[in-house]
Amino acid sequence: MNDRAETLEFQAEARQLLQLMVHSIYSNKDVFLRELISNASDALDKLRLTAMLDKDLAVDTDDLHIAIEVDRDARTLTVRDNGIGMSRDEVVSVIGTIAKSGTAELLRQLREAKDAGASQELIGQFGVGFYAAFMVADKVELTTRRAGEDGGTRWESDGAGTYTVTPITDAPQGTAVTLHLKPADAEDNLHDYTAEWTIREIVKRYSDFIAHPIRMTVERPGEGDATTTETVTLNSMKALWARPRGEVEPAEYHEFYKHVSHDWSDPLETIHMRGEGTFEYEALLFIPSHAPLDLFSPQGRRGVQLYVKRVFIMDDCDALMPNYLRFVKGVVDAHDLSLNISREILQQDRQIRAVRRRLVKKVLATVKELKTEQPERYRTFWSEFGAAVKEGLIDDTDNQDILLEILSVASTHDPAELTDLAGYVGRMKDGQSDIYYATGESRVTIENSPHMEAFRAKGYEVLLLTDPVDEVWVERVGSYDGKTLRSVAKGQVDLDTEEERKEAESERERQRAEYADLLGWMGGVLADSVKEVRLSSRLTTSPACVVGDAHDITPTLEKMYRAMGHEVPKVKRILELNPSHPLVTGLRKAHEQGAADSSLAETAELLYGTALLAEGGDLADPSRFARILADRLARTL
Question: Per the confidence metrics, is the pTM higher than 0.85?
Answer without folding.
Answer: no
